[in-house]
Write a structure and sequence with these properties.
- The protein has 14 helices and twelve strands.
- The chain has 293 residues and is α/β, with parallel strands linked by helices.
- The protein has an eight-stranded parallel β-barrel, surrounded by five helices.
- Strand 8, helix 6 and strand 9 form a beta-alpha-beta unit.
- The longest helix is centred in the C-terminal third of the chain and has 17 residues.
- The chain is globular, with a radius of gyration of 19 Å.
- The structure holds NADP nicotinamide-adenine-dinucleotide phosphate.
- The site of NADP nicotinamide-adenine-dinucleotide phosphate has 26 residues, from helix 10 and strand 12.
Length: 293
């Protein structure tokens, strides 16, 4: 496994395991513990969750494992997020000072932990005051409840606005990126991160599985191209999808969302595959139909 320095104090495994879908997996604490140990044995030591996943249930399930086996918490880097809430089934965002401070303490309680390695603001909040949000994040860091701070799904303008009020301590942006999603390439976010030597965490690296299950045209076109390139390299198409993300100089860290360690192995194998530059562009143009001039 490769590890990347996120800050002077913190390194992440280049391949991260995500737990968004954990509640659907319907696992016992023992099954979850075995899965987490399987990740650690593979060198995948960075785990991603959020307060909104299963409306707190995901953190609670992870917390039960940490209570049962406290040594496990020491072997991993734990990431959680705040900012998405529900009022009688209606979704809204809240990045206010009071909410962030309270949410972090609630997450730690559910996770049965003293601190998080990284705490993220989950989504861009249209009703966002960067000064207030920044103050809350800096205080959590000073109180030792979170080691590092960052954001998720932010565009360059909101990223820079918040960073200004966080003593430039934002250390990542967790963003959606896969061969059918180019939002952050188009917004310039990936350029901003590359320029600042910050590494994004990548969610839905396989488009939530749609790369291999959807019958819609962009996915079919990409999958055909991934399979063609995979044949050339003598590996599976899934590995090429991860290799495409890993190729970029920003040094992205894909978050695998699968419940199967065999699929985590595919992401790990991608670390040994180097695409030709023209192969990267074959995938880049396959779904978007982007015309290079
Ligand atoms: N910051 C954010 O806003 C945000 C948003 C979404 C997610 N996330 C994070 O990112 C993580 C990953 O996101 P994701 O779960 O969407 O990632 P993903 O890895 O793109 O998708 C995982 C899903 O695809 C399925 N899958 C994988 N390979 C497949 C194949 N070859 N054929 C059919 N199905 C396949 C998996 O099913 P199996 O379990 O059966 O393998 C699973 O349901 C999440 O766990 C979460 O931590 C963050």
């Amino acid at each position: 496994m490769e590890y990347l320095k996120i800050t002077e104090e913190l390194s992440f495994s280049r391949i991260i395991q995500g737990f968004w879908r954990l509640v659907q997996w319907d696992w016992s604490t023992k099954e979850l513990e075995a899965f987490m140990q399987g990740c650690i044995e593979r060198g995948v030591t960075t785990f991603d969750t959020a307060e909104v996943y299963g409306f707190g249930q995901c953190e609670t399930q992870l917390g039960k494992v940490f209570s049962k086996n406290p040594s496990l918490r020491k072997q991993i880097q734990l990431v959680s997020k705040t900012g998405i809430f529900n009022h009688d089934g209606f979704k809204y965002y809240d990045t206010s000072y009071e909410r962030i401070k309270a949410s972090c303490k609630e997450s730690l309680q559910r996770l049965s932990c003293d601190s998080l390695d990284l705490y993220l603001i989950h989504r861009e909040d249209p009703c966002f005051d960067p000064q207030e949000t920044g103050k809350a994040l800096l205080e959590l860091k000073k109180e030792g409840l979170v080691k590092e701070i960052g954001v998720s799904n932010f565009d360059p303008i909101k990223f820079q606005a918040l960073n200004q009020f966080c003593e430039n301590l934002l250390c990542t942006n967790q963003i959606e990126w896969n061969p059918c999603c180019f939002e952050h390439i188009q917004s310039g976010m990936i350029d901003l991160l590359t320029q600042n030597h910050l590494h994004p965490m990548i969610w839905s690296p396989l488009a939530g599985g749609k790369l291999f299950t959807s019958q819609e045209s962009p996915y079919i076109k990409v999958t055909e191209k991934l399979s063609e390139i995979a044949q050339r390299h003598g590996v599976e198409a899934e590995i090429i999808a991860y290799a495409w993300l890993l190729y970029h100089p920003v040094k992205a860290m894909p978050i695998v969302g699968s419940s199967k360690l065999s699929r985590l192995d595919s992401a790990i194998k991608a670390l040994d595959v180097t695409l030709e530059r023209w192969e990267w562009y074959e995938i880049y143009t396959a779904s978007s139909g982007a015309r290079l001039r």
